[in-house]
Design brief:
It is a single chain. The chain is about 70% helix and about 0% strand. The model has no long low-confidence stretch (mean pLDDT about 90). It has helices spanning about 1-30, 40-55, 65-70, 85-120, 125-140, 150-165, 175-215, 225-235, 240-255, 260-270, 275-290, 290-305, 310-320, 325-340, 350-360, 365-375, 380-385, 395-410, 415-425, 430-445, 450-460, 475-480, 500-510. It is built from 23 helices and no strands.
């Protein structure tokens, strides 16, 4: 019997150890996934501490982390985040030491209530308590690495085990008449209030979602400006929702009602001044109406919030050049060329930009793309060996080598090369590269109709569309900071923004 017990304990220990090891491996591997890397977490944590240090006593207010975080890093091209991926740091950043104190007291109170329930429970009751305590603790620990409770449904799933763990099994009945009457009355008033406020906000939101979809529907029955007008009723119903102003401004701008668009964007920026895209959009609107000073000031605000986003700087250069400040524009253009943004076709649009481009030596990577684009009789193999693409393990590099090989007569298995490109594909730009590669293969084989069909497919994939976000992760701002849906494309068509993959954009231009 003793030997059997030891055997059972040994097997149990082995199985438990294997489970723990598997869980640890899964957790460690999860940090290599996009958006879950350790360097991303530590970067967010560092910025959260910085935000806390700016207002350590009372914080910046509930639901302000995303807005404050936008001032700590360039958005775009960096990814926006609406929470600190850590519950403690999020509360510190938004509510300061006051909020942290309340959190600590709340956690202590919860554990005291759990312990009291456990000590007073029967063996059968403890089975249910175990589930509640384990679920509540697990939910809390998860929030040291993320904050999924920002989504109402997930928050509800966390409240269920917490309620199981802390609601007493032998509740004390109310004794005083005041509590016997006041408690249910207060609960009734609170319930009616929550349902009323929720219904009021849901009504406004449902009206909003229905309206913003109408001008983009195949059988659109309203113009952009008409939807902008109709959104005013939604804004009047829920004026605290800043994103409604943003979408109203966007729709007015598409409808060329510039004055109304500027008014809506000003209202949005009054409460959300750290959203760089709104500054870039309003800059283009000021430029439309001829207010050069306001346009340049707004574009500079966009750059101050997103200093690493090259298109904003180029946009400022365009404004300065058009307003007669050639020296200011030249300085900006030189900075951009030095940073490696030389493939945009916009460099060839004016003599000033052409002269700036001619001041710098062009890399082999640049020359390779130009040679492929213009079908120059250049030594493509030499340019390929000197380019950055040689060391890339990407869909883009696979297709570029396919093009070089086809044009130089190098032996290549085109099917295997396309298959490799597909294995490495991750984005819509990779899909466009693959379609472009298929076009090159068809053209090399003399099937021009098939080649043109693939080329059109590639161009369609990178074309800016209102139903697809123009900047990766940018819709995280309305979806997670405001918890509302949004028109996916957010930059106005007037704002300078080339295809993010400059090589692909150059090759696919008409």
């Amino acid at each position: 019997t003793t030997r059997r017990m030891w055997l059972i304990w040994g097997v149990s220990a082995l199985v438990s150890s294997l489970i723990v090891i598997i869980v640890i491996v899964i957790i460690v591997r999860s940090f290599s996934l996009s958006g879950r890397s350790l360097d991303l977490r530590t970067d967010i944590y560092t910025n959260a501490i910085t935000i806390f240090a700016e207002s350590p006593i009372i914080g910046h207010g509930l639901f302000t982390f995303g807005r404050e975080f936008a001032q700590e890093q360039s958005q775009p091209p960096r990814q926006p985040h609406s929470h600190a991926h850590n519950g403690v740091l999020l509360i510190m950043a938004e509510l300061g030491l006051v909020g942290l104190s309340v959190l600590v007291l709340s956690v202590i109170t919860v554990f005291v209530m759990m312990r009291r329930n456990w000590l007073g429970a029967t063996a059968q009751q403890r089975r249910l308590l175990t589930i509640g305590i384990a679920g509540a603790v697990g939910f809390g620990v998860h929030h040291l690495l993320d904050f999924p409770a920002m989504m109402p449904l997930i928050a509800l799933t966390g409240l269920i085990p917490l309620a199981i763990a802390i609601i007493p099994y032998q509740p004390q009945p109310l004794q005083t008449s005041f509590r016997m009457i006041g408690h249910p009355l207060a609960m009734l008033i609170a319930t009616i209030g929550f349902i009323g406020v929720g219904g009021w906000m849901s009504y406004a939101y449902s009206s909003y979602t229905a309206l913003v979809a109408r001008p983009f529907a195949p059988n659109a029955d309203m113009t952009y400006a008409q939807v902008g007008d109709a959104l005013q009723a939604v804004i009047d119903t829920d004026p605290a929702m800043a994103w409604y102003y943003h979408q109203q401004g966007y729709l007015y701008a598409l409808g060329v009602d510039d004055a109304q668009a500027i008014r809506a964007y000003q209202a949005f920026l009054a409460s959300e001044p750290t959203y760089s895209i709104a500054w870039a959009n309003i800059a283009s609107l000021y430029w439309r109406i001829g207010d050069v000073t306001q346009a340049i000031d707004a574009q500079q605000r966009a750059i101050s919030l997103a200093p690493d986003f090259a298109p904003y700087r180029f946009g400022l250069g365009i404004y300065l050049e058009a307003s007669g400040d050639a020296d200011g524009a030249r300085g900006i253009y030189r900075q951009l060329i030095q940073a490696g943004n030389s493939l945009w076709s916009a460099w060839e649009a004016t003599p000033l930009r052409q002269s700036v481009l001619s001041e710098f030596s062009i890399s082999d990577s640049h020359q390779l793309i130009i040679a492929l684009d213009t079908h120059q009789s250049t030594d493509l193999l030499s340019l390929w060996r000197g380019s950055q693409y040689l060391a890339e393990n990407s869909t883009r590099a696979s297709i570029l080598w396919l093009m070089v090989a086809l044009r130089t007569g190098e032996a290549i298995d085109v099917s295997a090369q396309i298959a490799q490109a597909k294995r490495l594909s991750q984005t819509i730009y990779d899909e466009a590269w693959i379609a472009f590669g298929e076009s090159e293969i068809a053209r090399h084989a003399g099937d021009l109709a098939r080649a043109d069909a693939y080329l059109a497919q590639a161009r369609d994939k990178i074309a800016f569309k209102f139903n697809r976000e123009d900047i990766i992760f940018i819709t995280n701002i309305p979806y997670f900071q405001f918890l509302v849906t949004s028109i996916p494309r957010q930059l106005l068509p007037d704002v300078f923004y080339p295809t993010p993959d400059a090589a692909l954009g150059r090759l696919l231009e008409d």
